[in-house]
Amino acid sequence: xxxxxxxxxxxxxxxxxxxxxxxxxxxxxxxxxxxxxxxxxxxxxxxxxxxxxxxxxxxxxxxxxxxxxxxxxxxxxxxxxxxxxxxxxxxxxxxxxxxxxxxxxxxxxxxxxxxxxxxxxxxxxxxxxxxxxxxxxxxxxxxxxxxxxxxxxxxxxxxxxxxxxxxxxxxxxxxxxxxxxxxxxxxxxxxxxxxxxxxxxxxxxxxxxxxxxxxxxxxxxxxxxxxxxxxxxxxxxxxxxxxxxxxxxxxxxxxxxxxxxxxxxxxxxxxxxxxxxxxxxxxxxxxxxxxxxxxxxxxxxxxxxxxxxxxxxxxxxxxxxxxxxxxxxxxxxxxxxxxxxxxxxxxxxxxxxxxxxxxxxxxxxxxxxxxxxxxxxxxxxxxxxxxxxxxxxxxxxxxxxxxxxxxxxxxxxxxxxxxxxxxxxxxxxxxxxxxxxxxxxxxxxxxxxxxxxxxxxxxxxxxxxxxxxxxxxxxxxxxxxxxxxxxxxxxxxxxxxxxxxxxxxxxxxxxxxxxxxxxxxxxxxxxxxxxxxxxxxxxxxxxxxxxxxxxxxxxxxxxxxxxxxxxxxxxxxxxxxxxxxxxxxxxxxxxxxxxxxxxxxxxxxxxxxxxxxxxxxxxxxxxxxxxxxxxxxxxxxxxxxxxxxxxxxxxxxxxxxxxxxxxxxxxxxxxxxxxxxxxxxxxxxxxxxxxxxxxxxxxxxxxxxxxxxxxxxxxxxxxxxxxxxxxxxxxxxxxxxxxxxxxxxxxxxxxxxxxxxxxxxxxxxxxxxxxxxxxxxxxxxxxxxxxxxxxxxxxxxxxxxxxxxxxxxxxxxxxxxxxxxxxxxxxxxxxxxxxxxxxxxxxxxxxxxxxxxxxxxxxxxx
Length: 862
Fold this sequence. Notes:
Residues 1-46 are annotated as: Disordered. With 862 residues, the chain is of the alpha/beta class.
């Protein structure tokens, strides 16, 4: 069964996924059968028979590790029903259920509806994720009955013979049975970044990945028996937690929980023992209990219900779930939900070139003979290249293009015996082979011209000139040392330049323009020649691409490296380790970094980045470590992904500000009323009305609205900076209206309560307007609709009866409106002053950063 090389990654950098691309033809048009042992092919192994596989499945010796997936239906229901907020609401509803009336228990219906909405939205998100996860699942190659077939990871059984190549992730633990220059990176397990050369008899561990060569191994541990598999299972579980946003919300909820008990106790004590004696009356005909205790309990419930931000957790879950569903429509798999939050904060995107900014495939443009052959009857460059393509155990993008070019032209590989083999490695940036030819044993290498020869040599200069036109150029050279020796390749004699053509994606330019408009810097980080990287960047209009940087010239000092990477935009000859260091340096400079890639050479950087984005046709290793997978391989989807992240997080911050404003004004009102020993101005039904028209209903629309603001760290403090002053002003305004309309009494009538409702609604609707900026037609309509609903509740007989409202006293209505007007002015002034103070602080920080940068630049020049 022929090996099937799939779309590799950044050509001179490595190979990637084998799951989606057909076999690339070799010099004769098809890859040869791996019929016998040798340097260039695996031995003849039959693997397990189908009967043996069935016997192992029956006895449970399978790789029974669950696929990466969302939470189960039961987990979703439990997570939405058994919450801290629902527990609080249940206790308060129980009190109202005992003392009545039914209108005061309306808040429980809101929680019920919220919970159902949350469950439905998350189930929709689960279906989306599960479908995309199936598409993204790796399909390892196994040998069964002598044929190489693809199976799911869960279908692997004990003693299975698996076949791997560059970019494949090791699915289970095993022992190598054949190796063709097999090099494995175990850094995700051990932390050691240096690849490990594997020979027959060596062990391989699940979770590691192949960086060079090919091989076969026999599975010795499968499923949960493999330690790395257990780690992968835990790490791959879908999660709604572990993000700044959710931890911030949980911290706020903890503070509120602690505040509920003393405030509730204060209200009960002040209204019972400071304002009169307890008398418990018999239930009325309607089932309602009246009297001081019942009234005190109703007031306490009204206050505590308003203190609880019941919709905040719901809307956070809904916003995340809707984000997952929307991204799913663009074939974007969210493997870790907090990645949506990280996307909102991205201000730097690092991307490789081939397969991301350029089309995945390349084609052989020309072979330029440099005349470096020793004698006239030496093999021609075409013969050598054909032989290299035929013996390569695992084609990368460049070798696949060469093989396809020869296959279409009918060029056949010479019948040479392979004596040594060095598969392509992203670290050394060349591959090679030794052949026993009619003229004797010869060693040939193919790779980067400025790596194999001196950068100022004629061959390297010509390669740089061609690369500046956006072409990929490789050098074919004769090596003086065996390619599999420690001192390979030794002295090299340039023979020919291999020119490969690559096409820039049509939508790449528009994608970079979007990022520029959104204040997101783009860095092209490629293993290709810097001139080639700069040419692609210039074609796409990337600022700074006219001055590309060879990553080998960058400082070894981490700080200086980070500053240089921050200033420049196009980098060539970047090794996998250097990619990781560049991403780490940008993070150390305070940036939120997204890394896109598709090859094994991108794995370390993808793991290091705040957000790793892999291409769906990329290597299994890159897909496994990324938080997001673009299943249709379109870099142009990334702006939609970033925009979705900003929409979700920006809107959650808005909604949080609204709900916490409600919490703060309720706390303020409850504490002052408790200290003054007057009756609480509201019943729970009033609190339900206020919460619904000012924050509850509008927040559903705001949570799903467009939003392009870049999210920044400091969610909790930034939210409280708006909520605390606005809430305190609204609370003091409500108390002021209450005391004015009471006129020295301690027990309010419906007209008094209505006046306070008017003050709070008018004030908090103004806060809603401040948070809802920028204004568009639907936001104006939304606020107008809320005012209309409030008016209907106040002027219609049904509304007045249900909510116990009375607007028959114009003086009290005007008092409520007048106090609200003063509060609105105060909130506006506070907001303007705060915005200006923040702007000045950010300007000072920017100036200090600029001065620091100038100092470093001057020091480096010296």
